[in-house]
């Protein structure tokens, strides 16, 4: 979450993630009504908002990261309201200039994102959509229409950080999403450690971990030692990366 515990720690955390094996970095933009997020990320968003972190600050954070890293993909995850407030055209232009590769706007359904997609297409930004265990094949065709980059498969019903997913129970869903969309499928929600990530890597093209990283920022905030955020996130990234690599090589 950008701005948690502060923007400087967020920047150091992005570097730590990159240096310890993260293939893609997902940076959160804080919002007042994060309907898809569980308690950990909700608290992170509130801390970031208390620091007066705005969408333009998140874009600036990525631009700073891009000064020394032009290769690591960076995805912005957030909600439609701040993007709409800034203006789709202005946001797409600024995001592209900063080096953002795409976004996940969890509350903007396919039926309502045509204007956004048109602006994204002008700047080669990915529209990353979500699917869930309840997404049936006909609906998946609609979700896939206009999607790009990858599909984010929500492994459990509910919010981020809640419960843990059973790879066997969703393997068929993941395969259907991959077949219908023609895109890589990354699985998230409920993945917290290397062992869980390794199991997900057996059925998915990528594994998304969020709340477990954010909890290191919370620890840093509570202790007042903000350097704990990048240290903790880097260590977790290393654990996840090693566990997934072992599966991929097997």
TrEMBL record:
The active site is at 26 (proton acceptor), 37 (proton acceptor). SUPFAM superfamilies: Ribulose-phoshate binding barrel (SSF51366). Keywords: Amino-acid biosynthesis, Aromatic amino acid biosynthesis, Lyase, Tryptophan biosynthesis. The keyword Amino-acid biosynthesis applies. GO terms for cellular component: cytosol. It catalyses: (1S,2R)-1-C-(indol-3-yl)glycerol 3-phosphate + L-serine = D-glyceraldehyde 3-phosphate + L-tryptophan + H2O. Gene3D superfamilies: Aldolase class I. Pathway: Amino-acid biosynthesis; L-tryptophan biosynthesis; L-tryptophan from chorismate: step 5/5. GO terms for molecular function: tryptophan synthase activity. The keyword Iron does not apply. NCBIfam families: trpA (TIGR00262). Tetramer of two alpha and two beta chains. Belongs to the TrpA family. This is Tryptophan synthase alpha chain.
